[in-house]
Design goal:
331 residues, Rossmann fold, OB fold (Dihydrolipoamide Acetyltransferase, E2P), eight-stranded antiparallel beta sheet, six-stranded mixed beta sheet, 37% strand, globular
Length: 331
């Protein structure tokens, strides 16, 4: 098990990472999700031993590895740009890490073959990596890491250079490989769809802090903050003012919202208006339809007041609608 305890990191006299603590257990994939500059890639590099920390500890199986050199941590790191050797073929690229460990040739051949089979590249051994597609090159990079049988896998935006179709296909295969091997993994991305598709647990970083830690379902259903809700695009964020217990005045009307926060009178709050119709809710948003966009199996309907909902059927532009929705109070 990996443990990160109270990690702090300064950069150019500014606090880049603040009191970061979490763990990753065997067979678990966690995703560090955040906007550019949130500190997620720096955190990954610190865990890999490629950057130093200012304070805190990193442990693996209860052993402190904070000062252990990268090559002795026995971790595997996959980058967005593949980092393959262009003068070596597929077999030689995958075998490279094993040769550095001075493993016997028979064992190298067995582990390379097993790794290539895992990523569906059996038969590609003699291909030049420069002749492969982007998806195939990323599979080679993954096979190279899997061949050394690392204690921990780390991915830094590994699918960022691929188009949508390739990305979705490789993501599904990667999830299956992680479940099959049960190697604990840390996956860094700014893409919410990737994070929710592959992670067992999501850690959302904002300004160097973990502001939400939970399963994909928990995070989606209970963002716990206005920033997380906005970042994930969970719905309409509107300003409200407390006018009575569980009642909020907004520019869109008065809403009744059961709230667990201890608000005082006239206190400001952020309200999340979920865009899916919820027929049993007491609140509704109303407006004139100004735009309708088909999105896979539903329609995104935008009103003249800027609010939007998702509906199963397309209304006429210019029509007036009232749609019951779920509204939550966030701080």
């Amino acid at each position: 098990m990996l443990e990160v305890r109270s990690l702090f990191k300064m950069y150019e006299n500014k606090l880049l990472l603040k009191d970061i603590s979490f763990n990753v257990v065997v067979g678990e994939t966690i995703c560090l999700l955040g906007a550019s500059g949130s500190g997620k890639s720096t955190l990954l590099r610190i865990i890999a031993g490629l950057e130093s920390l200012d304070s805190g500890h990193i442990l693996f199986n209860r052993q402190d590895i904070t000062s252990t050199p990268p090559h002795l941590r026995d971790f595997g790191l996959v980058f967005q740009d593949y980092a393959l050797f262009p003068h070596l073929n597929v077999n030689e690229n995958v075998a490279f890490g094993l040769k550095m460990r001075r493993i016997g040739q028979t064992e190298i051949s067995e582990q390379v073959a097993a790794a290539l089979e895992l990523v569906s590249l059996t038969g590609f051994e003699d291909r030049k990596v420069t002749d492969l597609s982007g998806g195939e090159q990323q599979r080679v990079a993954l096979a190279r890491v899997l061949a050394i049988r690392p204690r921990l896998l780390m991915f830094d935006e590994p699918l960022g250079a691929l188009d949508r179709t390739l990305r979705e296909g490789l993501l599904n295969e990667l999830r299956a490989i992680l479940h099959q091997t049960e190697i604990p993994a840390i996956y860094v991305t700014h893409d919410q769809e990737e994070a929710f598709a592959i992670a067992d647990r999501i850690l959302i970083l904002h300004r160097g802090e973990i502001i939400r830690d939970g399963t994909p379902t928990d995070v989606w259903e209970d963002p716990q903050s206005a920033y997380v809700a906005e970042f994930l695009g969970l719905g309409n964020m509107i300003d409200g003012e407390v006018i009575a217990k569980d009642k909020f005045q907004t520019e869109y009307g008065i809403f009744t919202v059961k709230c667990l926060h201890n608000h005082s009178g006239e206190e400001k709050a952020k309200l999340l208006v979920r865009p899916l119709m919820a027929v049993n809710e007491v609140n509704a948003i109303r407006g004139v339809v100004t735009d309708v966009i088909f999105q896979q199996d539903r329609f995104k309907v935008t009103f003249d007041n800027g609010l939007y909902v998702y509906l199963g059927e397309a209304p006429q532009i210019g029509s007036q609608l009232s749609v019951p929705v779920k509204i939550e109070c966030l701080i």
